[in-house]
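Re: the 862-residue chain
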Amino acid sequence: MGSIKPLQYMHPFSRICLTFMFVLSITACAALQPSSNDVVTISFGVEEFYTDLYEPLIESFNTEHPDVQVQLVSLDPPSGSPDETMQRIVSAVDTAAVSYIRHDDITSGRLRDLTPFIEADAAFDRADFYPGFLELSSYNERIYLLPQSVNLPRLSYNKALWEEAGLAPPAADWSWEEFITVTEQLTVKRDDTIERYGFTGSDSAIFFADLTAQGVDPIGMPVELIRWDRPEVVAALQRLKAYRETGITYRTTIDAPSDIRTMIANQEIAIWEPGLFAATSSDWVAPFEIGTVFYPKDSYLSSANIKVDGFIMSGGIQYPQEVWRWLSFLSRQAPPFPHMLPDAAPIPARQSVAMQLEYWDSLSDEMRSALEAMIEQPVTYISIDVVEPQINEALHEAMGVLYDDSQPLEQALQEVQNNFEEQVARVALTPTPDLTEQQIIVATPVPSIVPENATRIIFNPGMLDGRQVQHVADVFNQADTGVFVQLDDEGLGDLAAQADTSDCFAMFEVPEKADLQAVQNLQPLIDADMSFALDDYPAIMLEPLQQELDVYGLPQAAYLRTLIYNETRFDDADAPYPAIDWTTDTFFAVAEQLTSDSEQYGFGDADPNLNIPFFANDLGTSLVERGETGIRPRFTDPQAVAALRQYVDLLAATAPQQQLVATTEAETEEQVDIRQLFRAGQVAMMFDFGFTHVEERPEFVARMAPPPLGDRAPTTNDVFPIGMFISKNADVPATEACWTWIKHLNTQAPLVFDTFPARKSMAQSEEFLAQAPEGAEEVYSAYLAAFERGPVPDVARVPIIDPSFKWHWLYQAIDQALQGEHLEEALEDAQRLTTAHVECVQDGGSTEDCAEQVDPEYEMTP
């Protein structure tokens, strides 16, 4: 029996790298053979980032093959299990560009065997592929993915630092032990300050590399045999902790890639993964000479980072021969390498393509020699075809206890092992959905020809989910409405820029009065349309999109402030669940009740700039004011001072964060991630806009509730609508067509994740409630009741996207108050500096230049 060699060996703690999913209408039909006069349309799916790069290839193929037309489909990121994700891909398109396939994708019939097409195609020429590349995804000697490029795992290093340390050039076959020795020699630490790190990588990656180098492979053994408390694991974690403390390795996080890039540029990191310091444009020049070396041959990393990009054929296609013509054509084209340095670019799978690109000539001598050596020798792959979720969970726990000194490491890992065994047992008792019998029916490509007598309009979805909008547009365009919608999602831009490039568009940013000159007043359209019910929209949804009594934008969806809470913590403390009639006093009291000395916090603020205004609005005041001269702070207003005092007291008594501004690397490392602490069960309540964190975890249940408004009405700082506008440049037919289209969009459920419908009727519809998490209906109902309490409160909306307004100095004032200094004095400084910054930017200065100009002590957060 054969075994599959996975195409991309991802870290087991990473998300599966299938960045593709698009939901289309599915119609069932049997395999077809086109007649001699038929034009066959096939669909090709790619990650959105690559659509522009593939469009010229599609145009060229469609011109050369008039009987076969390829339609490009932009595919969504994955959701659900890997099985479910691949099922959606092969049901959405005939063929797709992917970077990973799994054993189950083949045995379930989701993927078509490409071997018969290869053998029948006299022009294909298998010998043109570099040895072994075509077989990378073989199963029983059958090929299921046609490789386009192969990226062998490598590292970049700063040659100057290497030479400065007196090190010999790295060998292509070095070991993990030699790698650690070298990184130690490259590290510079003086007293307690680490001035240069040897290598940057995630804790999990280095942990697995160290383990596999010692002969322990948790990935390759059955889960029931894995023990997280074995001495080798303890030793590996202890070494990892020492690597961090001494500076041998610097922790890479997904939240700070730009910080890593800055550190590499400043020569504070000696060795890194190439993607962390890649070219930003075709003319980018590195500030120092960069060398390349491969991962240590005996570590997990040498196999886990192999990446093969290529093309699959759905098992449910109707026209396999036509699809193969497209794939055969694609395999002879240059892979898309946008803004990539030659030494970082993958190897084209075909030798002829490499020659066409002059690939080998573009490489440095060092890289060329290393790659040639790797191609000539067999590579040992680590099979991580299926990464068990229990391993990921245990790994997360193990990384969590790494820096926890509250108990011995051995004892903490014993708890990890106990939890792991419980999860393994639980999974063993859970039935696995059988997807192998599901019939695969590929969605029928939607024609893109504008019907006669239809008005074509350009719509930019902006903040709306472009893929969902495209699906709605595909169905709409087939309904014979006299309107044909073409999407243009090239960048977001400001309101005037959107109006210049599209007939109508959606936008999150609330327009200023001057911006409205670029869009049409919708009020005449509303008044003339007897079928349109404006009263279906709460007044607060319309208020940010109005000037006086005229409506300039129609909201499709809105972000509503929610209170996310750990229901389990509330139950344990016998505390009442949050409700909209809670006052802030009730909120403060319960937050204190849920706070204990054992690092359990009642409240955490993940977005201070969005949440501090809530407390000011609760006292009937604003932190900013808007006028003819733009936005200005009002931090020293007595009511604002009182609200900020409440906020400081809340943080001091119930929150883990005691500092909002970090100006040094040490302070940055000490800052807390509130959302991460909430997921860990340490924070009981946090404000959010939406319901991302509503879930049932093994450890606790997270619920959503309305914010504690007491008896007041919500403000425009609690409700953020996404508006749809019609450009002033649209002619009369386009204006009428846009009105028809945006009305249709408002018959849909929210087209942005994490949002609520703008229309009351939609928020109470089965269509929305069926897809919304538990508690969404109650939250919206509570808001509806609060909306009826009176007119929208007259408080200024805080800036969300405004380069002139920086929260830095207000945060700094709050930090000073948390450290015991006088809040009023600190707020006077914040008022003065923030005002000066606003005026500087309004006079044409840049955000950061103005910050340094008005405050010589200003330091950007590292």
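Residues 561 and 718 are 5 Å apart (CA to CA).
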